[in-house]
Amino acid sequence: IQWEKQIRVSAEIHRDGGMSVLVTGAAGFVGSHVSLALKRRGDGVVGLDNFNDYYDPSLKKARKALLKTNGVFIVEGDINDAKLLANLFDVVPFTHVMHLAAQAGVRYAMENPNSYVHSNIAGLVTLMEACKSANPQPSIVWASSSSVYGLNENVPFSELDRTDQPASLYAATKKAGEEITHTYNHIYGLSITGLRFFTVYGPWGRPDMAYFSFTRNILQGKPITVYRGKNRVDLARDFTYIDDIVKGCIGSLDTSGNSTGSGGKKRGPAPFRIFNLGNTSPVTVPTLVSILERHLKVKAKRNILDMPGNGDVPFTHANISSARMELGYKPTTDLQTGLKKFVKWYLSYYGYNHGGAIN
Ligand code: NAD
User: Fold this and answer.
1) Which of 96, 151, 186, 313 could join 165 via S-S bond, C-beta 3.0 to 4.6 A?
2) Taking CB atoms and a 6 Å cutoff, what residues make up the pocket around ligand 1?
3) Could you give the ipTM of this predicted complex?
4) Where is the NAD-dependent epimerase/dehydratase domain (predicted)?
């Protein structure tokens, strides 16, 4: 196979006790950051991504180029491709899989529901099958979502709170993912850690997310739509900075062991864990807009509308005591500081006049 040599080099471990990690969704927002962080500390990393066009594929290509410069090779392919996965595990005995490939976004589920089933359910099962058959069996850390708390308005959310009322098909597929991975844990002994990310933002972020599209529209002098919840209550999110999420992902990989162990011996029952990774300080969307206005030095034109009921929940807020205790997770970046870094990146990447003049 033509990429075989490249992935062997990319998977080389350059520190004692290091791991070799297959990162799915490596050309994505979170995947690219996690891949770089692992590579920097000397772990072996191979990426996998299908470069779909859910949002601007050129941004994914740019992340890929950045990773390549830093020694991370990304294989272009789909997690539904069982043969490709088997080939990858044949070439590299991955100790860990960081599974971040998914169809993200809650609103797009109204337009293309099957893309969620394809990546978040069928793709997940194909990946679990490949992990089950791999030797050694890798430990799996994967991205669930705060959206599993759905219509539950009892904040802050703890991991044991109810998750049986998804508000979107996206949330339903993430919840299904938790059940699917649990099955692979207890039947096949795969080590599984599910991470419920809370609204992740930062440099190299996702253009479909509000903070990103607001920035673009504000700079282009276009109006932004700010949704309001029931009884005109402002929506709020527990915005979590990318570097904090990356630390949570790496803390999870470091504590997840690997099911078969280096000598091929089982080390007791494989763990099944679920953690919230949030910031524990929700901020309303109007406050988010004011912070962006300050950093961009441009006033936003706001359209305030009632939430149309297309999958959004009114507010999110994480209780992170489990992640704090078991992963050493401790978010340190507040929204003000994190958005400053995002805006700095945005302006250096797109320039001040991205897509039109500003006034
Ligand atoms: P992203 O869309 O930037 O990254 C996902 C990547 O996976 C993309 O590059 C995409 O091309 C790739 N991909 C999608 N389907 C694939 C498939 N079938 N095969 C191979 N590659 C595929 O999204 P992100 O924000 O980096 O999210 C990473 C993970 O975290 C996702 O599972 C997402 O659902 C979850 N998550 C993200 C947030 C957030 O705020 N960003 C919040 C909660 C959960």
Assistant:
1) 151
2) 24-25, 27-31, 49-52, 60, 78-80, 100-104, 119, 123, 143, 145, 197, 199-200, 206
3) 0.99
4) 21-255
